[in-house]
What we know:
By secondary structure, the chain is an alpha+beta fold. It folds into five domains: 2-101, DNA Primase, Chain A (Alpha-Beta Complex); 107-223, DNA primase DNAg catalytic core, N-terminal domain, CATH 3.90.980.10; 247-357, Dna Topoisomerase Vi A Subunit, Chain: A, domain 2; 366-421, no CATH class; 446-578, DNAb Helicase, Chain A (Orthogonal Bundle). The chain is 49% helix and 12% strand. It contains 25 helices and 16 strands. It has a five-stranded antiparallel β-sheet with strand order 1-2-3-4-5. The longest helix has 24 residues, at 531-554.
Amino acid sequence: MAGRIPQSFIDDLLTRVDIVEVIDRYVPLKKAGANHKACCPFHGEKTPSFNVSQPKQFYHCFGCGMSGNAISFLMEFDHMHFVDAVEYLADRVGLEVPRDAIATITPSQQGLYDALNECNLYYQQQLRTTPAAIDYLKNRGISGDIAQRYEIGFAPDAWHALEENTDSNDALLVQSGMQIRKDSGKSHDRFRNRIMYPIRDRRGRVIGFGGRVMDNSEPKYLNSPETPLFQKGRELYGLYELRRATRGSPERIIVVEGYMDVIALAEAGIEHAVATLGTATSSEQVAQLFRETDEIVFCFDGDNAGKKAAWRALNSALPSLKAGRDARFLFLPDGEDPDSLVKSIGTEAFMQLLIEEAIEASSFLFQELEQQAQKGADRSGTGYKARLAEIAKPLISNIPTGVYRTLVEDQLFEKVGVNVFGSEKQQSQKTYHQTQKQPSQPNMSPVRKALIAILDSPEVVLEIDPEAYEFSIDIPGATLLLDVISLIESKPDITTSGILERYRETQHSDALLKLVQVGMASTVESGINTPLSVLQHAIEQLNKESLRAQLKKANLNKPSEMSDQQKNELRERLQQLKKP
């Protein structure tokens, strides 16, 4: 997958990214000597063993062994795909990933993108020539500017409009979800007589549509079905437009339930809202939003349906909560939605309501759990407290280990009077400290020592005369060592992180990763030998080892194909080898 993005771009990206800044958004780091430390986000612990090296642009946990660079961290901790991680980091440092290298697009996928784009253009053209649709949007308070920005369109009340007015055939239209094929084999347009809202991916490509009727007929909203390009649980309406409008991390993102809510808020100047696509908010959607901001406000109706939707959203948000990051919940008055409310009270009052009335995730969590636990029981009774602890524990366990979770656990303790997580935490700590082992270097080969020194400080290679490398490539690992040296000589600014990225998904990836871990452990334990002195000594050892092999092969006491001059040179080298 990395091969689709130019390696030069990855190299440039990793020299600009600061891994400490990236990880600190997820795990608060503290300076500790040459490194930064924290309790590991990949396993529970009380004593910090998670180290982040700024010079190396590398992290490693001495407890559970997790290691990698900024890209690896996002893939492991935030479950991003490689390309998504690269795009996220590129956004943060102001780089644009080459579009033709972002991902492999098959001809069939490209056909779907083209078909959906054609449909989008057709719907926009239809809106401009349909007075009833224009009047509907005007009556809803939608300006031409907002309609154009969100590329709102109109699907005419016809059964075969797309097939007759675009270049896409019925097979593509069916596969893209724009037509429905009947058992008879005939197909017709899915969307008819509806205001059309294109749904875009993070790169701005149309992947589906939402359609809304202009009267009271049902269903009011109709979404594209799941297709090879469109999975409802992964996408959010308005996220692409939000990112373009805010051009940076917004202070908060508002999650609403409908397309018109997003549009109405944008019309009111609130351009940091997105909508779910007719399904419950997923953990993947929440994770996407937390890459953009540190606060999400779920804005739902105050009725039972709204409360249920909020509860599902909270469950999806728990795995992403941490110190400095929170989800909040605003429940609107009966009969109101964001569209109607912002029009009745205005932008300023709506934002004030959002800030002052939205409750924190932990408050909403216990509010709901206490209602579930009570069921007519006395809140001071043992049964109520036991029930509350029982239903709260698995939910709180979904929150990542850290300060935020500790505070939520403390809230539960205040309510039930028992440390529900106490013995479990102690056992977890005991297990990890029993298994924690620092990497060691017994009987390590010169090649491994040289690689450890280079991976610790790649710049030391530039202080070695290239003619100093006299050893043979026949020595195990020598080819890899020379390859790494050559890489650094060609890219003097490359970091440890960049070197590891070069070897991602190769046969040497795991070996190099382990050597970086050994180097970090050595630095923590002693810090006596400098990387340069270790490298110089390792090269001397390799040169001697190579010379011994040559001498053994030549066998100077017997006739050989070597000339007398060559034999004399080897004898002189042999004498040098014997010197201390």
